[in-house]
Amino acid sequence: xxFLKRLFxxxxxxxxxxxxxxxxxxxxxxxxxxxxxxxxxxxxxxAQIWTALWAGLRLSLKTAGVVTLISFVFVTLLGLxxxxxxxxxIFASLIFSTLFMARFPxxxxxxxxxxxxxxxxxxxxxxxxxxxxxxEYGLFWRFPVAxxxxxxxxxxxxxxxxxxxxxxxxxxxxxxxISFGAGIIIFVALFGIFCRFGGSLTYANGLNWENAGIxxxxxxxxxxxxxxxxxxxxYTIHKWMAAGKISxxxxxxxxxxxxxxxxxKGLVADNLAxxxxxxxxxxxxxxxxxxxxxxxxxxxxxxxxxxxxxxHVADGIKSLIAEQNCYYSRNFxxxxxxxxxALTGIITGLPEVNIHVNYQPRSYEEIYTSAMAPPFHxxxxxxxxxxxxxxxxDNIPKLALAQGFDNFxxxxxxxxxxxxxxxxxDEDLFNAIEKHLADEPPTVHVILTTSNxxxxxxxxxxxxxxxxxxxxEVEKLPNVEDTRQLTTELGHYWYMDxxxxxxxxxxxxKYPNSLFIITGDHAVRTDPSTHPxxxxxxxxxxxxxxxxVTKNILPPDAVGGHTSIVPTIIELIAPKDYVYYSIxxxxxxxxxxxxxxxxxxxxxxxxxxxxxxxxxxPHVPSAELNKVNLSAERDAAKRIVExxxxxGWWILNNGIGLNK
Length: 660
What we know:
Helices cover 48% and strands 10% of the residues. By secondary structure, the chain is of the alpha/beta class. The strands form 5 sheets. A 7-stranded mixed sheet has the order 3-11-10-2-9-5-6, with helices on both faces. It has a 4-stranded antiparallel sheet with strand order 14-15-16-17. The longest helix has 34 residues, at 2-35. The model has no long low-confidence stretch (mean pLDDT 91).
């Protein structure tokens, strides 16, 4: 009888915690939608907002249910100290209030609620991330607000816990007691199932994070996920990644996909090397003395587009493009949304398959067949890496050296002042490289800039940036949430553009027989509005500049990505019949599609890989618009994604051998 009394009382108190957490998550969801409403599409209806709130409430049954289950097991069933129930509620309130405050800057940076970027961040420089979050994203005011919200939650929860519960009914017979107890257990079981399936007693009619995106608005679909479900999504995707369950990876058909990417047909082999083998067609430019691959931090392409020309923040790179010895493709994609993913693509030649290449044991046991350094060594070059930040950052220095790079030069090698926690100013980085060139033999230099990265603390006025003039132009753009913040970010972009361009012009003056490739590590973080196109949100430029380069040296707007860069350079400078290995073809022989984790680009369209969303590229000639079949573009891109991802995943997990 004592246990039954505790069970009945405990279930009532647990239900109070359940309802409190459920309503807390719904209130936070509503506040988020109202505060960030500029991110909603213009045609989003009020009915869709109510649909999102209702779906979110259903989905949050799961999150509230998990918190309640902890209380039910440890307090109601096991009979531990009843104060533990309140502590569980308080702790949950603190977590959800803190995540609620963090959700705003996170969404602004990544256009989503918490996602796989969280896992990427855990493998990054945590000290630098902490400083960035503190300085740029308001940690020191957001966390106190979260604490205030938690105090309010404590007051409400404390009151809920002291309200008397209904007393146990008078149960005189043993059968009555057993029946009543069984009824409570059945209720708890059914209630648990109801919460587990998101407002249904069956999986078929349930709701989970995978099918919760039921509106036509991306922002609302993300808002449906409370922060608990968003982190569950992260956990699930991370498990899929570890198991190779990423969209497009099909281990069973490795041979089919290997044959698809190979320029040689009818191969029979017990390893992938013959399928990756490519033969250069002969030199197209004089062999450069130095080759520079400049990877600009967040060098997104959209400020270079005509509609944003009045911003004048990309005038440097556009002045290079205007010259006769320059080629420019707009149809270019980064390898991923993170700097480290871009660099692993360059260093190893492997596409993004949701595996941390820089933390894979195989990456330090053998040089990948598609790696960058070996062919350049064979062609007579040293291969060096230059970075304005820490020599220990995210295992990239270790990876580069393990994959055959000759040197890695980081912040300590520059002997300059640190500008931010991430490293030196771009000007200091470029000056150090230029000074170093005097004693260098032919070298390929991979250069990663740092200045266009939060915290945005450059003295822009001192650098010559007209903040007010740019702000006036930014204010003309539609759907900009914070015009001053966007102007600050564009000011740092302008600085990067200016210093990189100055470096190119200075070096080409001293070493005329040089070749430059300019691109960005990723585009996400800075968008032109709350409703960027896929192309604006994802694309980065590809600029080829130097001796022997012409406007038509490559097909117009050749489609490619980071893994296309090395084979393109090899095709430009290698003698005829030189053999090299690459998963991606050069831009001379493009597959016609390039991709990263989320999106793809083709000659005419940009789209999402895992959603049926495709958009025309802004530069498709008007005469061609009616000829573009968006479904066909997506189908063709999907085939290329599947082939390259499957081969890349196989190499990372199994090596090049096919007998697995």
